[in-house]
Amino acid sequence: MRIVGALGVALAGLSVIGAVTAYGQMDKRPQYEGTTAAVVDDKGNLQVPSDYRTAYQMLGSWAVAKEDGPGSKDLHVVYASPGTIAAYRKDGHFPDGAVLVKEVFHATTQDMTTGTVSSAGTLAGWFVMVKDSVGRFPENKLWGDGWGWAWFDATDPQKTTSTDYKTDCQSCHVPAQESDWIYTHGYPPLNR
């Protein structure tokens, strides 16, 4: 009986050790960090995440007005990787590893019963940004000022046409430099 009791105590002890070890090895990173691997390779090359429409949260949309008449020229729809909105609301900063995906559509404009209406037409491409607060890829010209930056034509979501974020991407974001290069005022979920 003593052997059975000692064996039971030993097995219970091993179970506790196993559970504690397993807990200690669990991935305790915030949820948004896991999404970075699907967007960035080990050299800092970016791609459009294939599941952004279903797994990401919508941040908001922008309409770019036509220069020669009523309606919009482009529509931009922006998504954030899981956990980004909650983290931003918590401390007012984009968390390291957060991914933003902006779809850019050429707009179609027509008269409707509600007035002149612009809606998404053909997809022009995507703009992808990945928050990088530690400077992971100093040799890659698509990384700097706290972000990875890349434009992708609609024909290839895995190969960027950007070559240098300073000349290809950042100029559109200069007015938003004080808010970490992101036009946060246009995203209602961040400002509640």
Automatic annotation (TrEMBL):
<keyword id="KW-0614">Plasmid</keyword>
<feature type="domain" description="Cytochrome P460">
    <location>
        <begin position="49"/>
        <end position="184"/>
    </location>
</feature>
<protein>
    <submittedName>
        <fullName>Cytochrome C</fullName>
    </submittedName>
</protein>
<dbReference type="Pfam" id="PF16694">
    <property type="entry name" value="Cytochrome_P460"/>
</dbReference>
<dbReference type="InterPro" id="IPR032033">
    <property type="entry name" value="Cytochrome_P460"/>
</dbReference>
<dbReference type="InterPro" id="IPR038142">
    <property type="entry name" value="Cytochrome_P460_sp"/>
</dbReference>
